[in-house]
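Section: protein folds

Sequence with per-residue tokens
===
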Amino acid sequence: MYTIIYFSPTGNTKYLAEHMKEVLGGSNTKVLALDFLEVEKLEKDNQLIFMYPIHGFNAPRSVKRFVKKLPEGLFDQVHLVAVGCNNSWVNDAVSLDLKRQLKKKKYSIGVDEIFAMPLTFIMSFPEDAIYKMIAEAKKKVDTIISQIKENKPTIKKVKLMPRIINFIGKAESPAARIFGLELHAKKDCISCGICWENCPEGNIKPNKDGIPKFAFKCEMCMRCIYNCPVKAITPRISKFIPIKTGYNIDNYKKESKS
């Protein structure tokens, strides 16, 4: 009855997708990670809940590509759930490109909402703020599920300013490609393969010595940096960007159960 497809480079979106499955009921809900999902193998279902992080006031490149490949008539209705560090008006236009693609394919759009979760890039959130944001996001899941079940679509009028911010934010995609080119592994790299096996864009390949090489397809999801067990991956030039180690959502799951 329900299919949840999520893209979650650092864990926030996956956490909410799994909680959404619990609320919907596990027996009638499938949860699928987008990363290496083959569109042509998707099965027809009633409702698709599509969840993704916000990158530069937009959906990530891999998410847009996936929606572009989605065949017509596979789902009765599609719901869009974006996850960012806030749900203020600046992110109101984040789903515009996805909705255009879905409407071209004659999909009915239901819920179109934004969840606020702790940031994993640039800055660290205080502990109390992290717990509060997770708790509020989980409560919002209940509200969203009620909207979906009662067939109450989101009525959203996107104003000019969020549209402008969304357009400017598209510059992050080419900037991310350049960022990826300057990533490298320091000498303490252990050649574990986690980075190249889990890169959603296939941007990382091992060289003849088993050291990761980075190409021009990066979307700056930060997964390789955060998932590296020895924190060996770093940019060469963009060291001015304060790349925090990020919080681990697993550390907050037990305390956040309510």
Q: What stands out?
A: The mean pLDDT is 90.
